[in-house]
Amino acid sequence: MQLIKKLLTVIIGTMIAAYGIDLAIHAGFGGATLAVLWEGLSKTFRITIGQASMIIAVIMIIFSFFYDRKQISWGTIIYQVVYSSFIDIFEPVLIYTDSAVLNFGLMILGLCLLSLGAAIYSYADFGRGSYEAMTFAFASRNNWQIRNVRITLDILCVILGALLGGKFGLCTVATIILTGPLLQAFLTRLQKHDPLKFN
């Protein structure tokens, strides 16, 4: 029963995160940090955003496996398949307005959902998503703050993505500022209250 609960938690959290990242990056304010890298890879090799996210994820999973193996589990693989698939599934059904202000609000909502989804599947402790695995691996092995590691990785992703042709803008800056602290805040609350009794 516990295994089923963890599996469902990973899937639900992943779908929330996928919708959140889609909502943020298509609002018209540039890409979220990791999405800048996906877009650059997508343009360079003429593949979809979902396919680009899968390639980056495989690289991150391999790194995390050798750097801090406990961050990787079957949930990591399940997460990545669901995440990359739903990024492409959600994209055609997104709805925006003619108002830049409202679209900016939708972008912020997307980043909040991304952070919440990431916290939910991390809370299940059934293996983390590829980016979270790398984030938590650096944080755990070096006793660094999650938010500081995430901000550093975000900046590196933006630089590499921009060099490959990815677009950055307000969404990129907002992602760097918001997602690390929000992820840590959501995850801390979930672990403290433990609504699904995982701990």
Offer a few descriptive terms.
8 helices; mainly alpha; about 200 residues
Structural description of this entry:
With about 200 residues, the chain is mainly α. It has one domain. It is built from 8 helices and no strands. The protein has helices at about 1-25, 35-45, 50-65, 75-90, 100-125, 130-140, 145-165, 170-195. Helix 1 runs parallel beside helix 4 (about 75-90) and helix 5 (about 100-125) packs parallel to helix 8. The chain is globular. The model has no long low-confidence stretch (mean pLDDT about 90).
Summed over residues and divided by their number, the pLDDT gives a mean of 90
Written as H for each helix and E for each strand, in order along the chain, the element string is HHHHHHHH
User: What amount of the residues lies in strands?
Assistant: under 5%
End-to-end Cα distance, whole Å, is: 14 Å
Q: Please identify the structural class as seen in this structure.
A: mainly alpha
Shape: globular
Whole-number radius of gyration? 16 Å
Most strands sheet: none
Q: How many domain modules?
A: 1
Bin the helical content: over 70%
Assembly annotation: single chain
Given the structure, what is the number of helices? 8
- Which spans of ≥5 residues are poorly predicted at pLDDT below 50? none
Give the total of beta strands. 0
